[in-house]
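INTERNAL AUDIT FORM
Audit reference: QA-55
Scope: verify that the stored structure record matches its stored sequence.
Auditor: D.O.
Record contents follow.
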Amino acid sequence: MEFFRYNQRMPTSLELTTLGHRIRHHRTRNGMTLDELGALVGVAGSQLSLIENGKREPKLSLLQAIASATGTDVSDLISGDAPNRRAALEIELDRLQASSVFRGLGIAPVRVTKGVSDETLESILGLHRELQRREREAIATPEEARRANTDLRLTMRARNNYLPDIERLAEAQLRDAGHTSGALTHRTVTIMAERLGFELMYVSDLPHSARSVTDLENGRIYLPPTSIPGGHGLRSMALQALGHRVLGHARPENYADFLQQRLEINYFAACCLMPETAAVAFLAQAKKERNLAVEDFRDAFGVTHESAGMRLSNLATSHLDMRMHFLRVDESGALSRGYENDGLPLPQDVTGSIEGQIVCRKWSARAAFTQQNRTTEQYQYTDTPAGTFWCSTQTGATAAGEYSISVGVPFDDARWFRGRETQQRALSTCPDESCCRRPSSSVAQRWSDKAWPSARVHTHMFSPLPRGAFPGVDDNEVYEFLDRHAAE
C-alpha cells in the first residue's frame, strides 16, 4: 500500500516535490549517489530520480527503507518543510509555475538544474511574485466592474432586496448586546464590538482612502473622531467593520466578491440600526393606518432619509406585500444608486448597468430640485410606458453637491402612503428621446447653428478603476497608520 493512500488521500504535486527534496537532502548529506542508495533499498537509481523529482509516489515500504539507509525516520521524510533554502526556492518556483496566472501566459516553465544559481532563482521568483501581486491588484476592468455590479443588482432584485440570514444574525448580535428597543446607541455598538473582541478607537489621522481600518492583530477598529457631525454615520461605519467579522468574510478574490461583501456589510449595518422585528411592526402599523412615510420611518430609528428609504426596500415585498423602487439621483440627473422590483423602467446601458445613467427629467427624482420648499417630501404620480407610479422624494446636499432620494410604488399601492392625494402628475415616455432629451423642432431650428456651449468635463471619466483587493485603498498609507498606532 502506498504511503499517501494509506492516509486515505492522494498526495498533491507540491507534497511529492517536497518529499523528493527531503529524500535528496538526506541522500546527499550521507554522500550517496542515486545508484548507491538504490542498491541499499533495492530499486534502480533511475527510479529514485523520479521520486526525488516529484514524478512518482513511493510506497510506504520504500520510504521506510530510504529512512533506514539515510539514518532518519519516515516522519522526517514526509515533513512539509523544505529541508534547506535551495529546496525552498525550487518548491516555491514549482508552485508559482503551476499557477493559472503563469500558465495563462503561454510561457514555457523554467527547468531548474544544478547550474542555476540561488541568485538566479531569487530573481525569477521576484518576477513571479510581482506577477501574482499585479494580478491581485488589477481586480477588474471598468466593464467587468459594471457587469459585476449589474449582476449583483439583478440578484438582489430576484431576492426582493431581502437577505433573511443577515437579518437573523443582526438581531442575534443586538439581543446579545442587550438592545431591546429604540434607536441604537453608540454604547450598544461599543458593546457589540467588545463581544467580538474589538475596541472602537476614534482617531483624527485615518488614511484618507479608508472610512475605517480594522487591526486584526490587536483587536482595534479605527474610526473618525466622534466630534464629526452625523452620529448615524459613525454607528454605521462601526457596524460595517463589525459586519466583516460577523459574516466571516475573507480577503476579496475579485471585484464581484468585493461588491458582494460591501453590500452585505451595508445590509448588516442597516439591520442593526433598524432591526427587522421592530421595523416591520412600525411599518405594518403605518400601513394599517394608510400613513406610510419614509420621513416617519427615518425619525423613529434615528437614521438618514436614504437609509430609511433603502431599508424600506428590504422589507416592503417580504413583509408588506408590495413592490417598490428606490433611487438616489444627483443634481445632474445621473442615477448613482437604484433598485426596483415594481417594473419602473430604469435607464441602462448596453451592459444592463444603471449607475451613471440619466433619469427622465419628468420624474420626481429630478423635478424635486426645482421645488422651492425642499424641507419636506415631494409627492408625484408619473405615467410611464410601464404604468403609473407614485413617488415621494426628498432632496439633500453634501460637499459633492445636491442629490435626491426617491421611494415609489405602482399606482395601486399608493393608497398605503401619506401624500397619495397629491395632484402633481407628469407624463414620461422615456426612453423615447422626444420625451425630455431631444429639443422640439422649432427650438432646434432656432438655435442649432447659433449655440456653442463649453462642456464641463467630468474628471472621473478619465480616472482608472481603483486597484487592489480593497479598491481605492492606499495599502502603504494604511500600514503606516497601523504601525503608528500599534505602539500606543
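Auditor finding: record pair retrieved intact. Residues 227-231 have pLDDT under 50 and may be disordered.
Action required: none
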